[in-house]
Fold:
Amino acid sequence: MLRSLLYVSTSTLSLPHDGWQVDEIVKFSRRFNAMANITGALMFTETNFAQFLEGPGEHVYALLEKISGDTRHANIDVIMERETELRLFPDWSMAYSGPHLFVAGQFSAFAMPSGQGERDRAAQHLIETMAVLVRGAGPNYH
Ligand SMILES: Cc1cc2nc3c(=O)[nH]c(=O)nc-3n(C[C@H](O)[C@H](O)[C@H](O)COP(=O)(O)O)c2cc1C
Structure:
């Protein structure tokens, strides 16, 4: 069984000055995640990150701990965790999509106090959006 999780966080980067940092994160992640057998997707909306991670549980949680200590974002909120057999992003050590202002609205569901059912639905919707965005071909997706 593999472990997958989705978190959202608030970016502390100040754009456009710090924009290069996102490229650094993606570049570093692709190398590291490939070694750790972790796949997933990262989305950036200029104010928030959302990241889906999947792989062996101990690797995923060790990575989450490292990521949680990264000062380039704050308020890390794990909104979905589950066991899974199949990877959603088997071909991506870290697919990247962003910045997407039109998905920014989806983050508000996690910012407001809401019931668990509502959070679960919003998390599922966000994962589906990430899957569509990063698997689709287009100038913003690489
Ligand atoms: C939003 C966000 C997502 C990140 N995702 C990953 C990731 O998937 N894999 C990874 O190795 N590092 C990721 N990082 C970078 C780590 O936080 C950390 O900087 C990197 O692992 C290097 O850590 P080290 O210098 O302690 O080795 C991410 C950072 C941020 C801010």
Q: What stands out?
A: Confidence is low (pLDDT under 50) at residues 137-142. The chain has four helices and five strands. The pocket of flavin mononucleotide is lined by residues 25, 28-29, 32-33, 42, 49, 51, 63, 66-67, 70, 72-73, 94 (CB under 6 Å). The first strand starts at residue 2 and ends at 11.
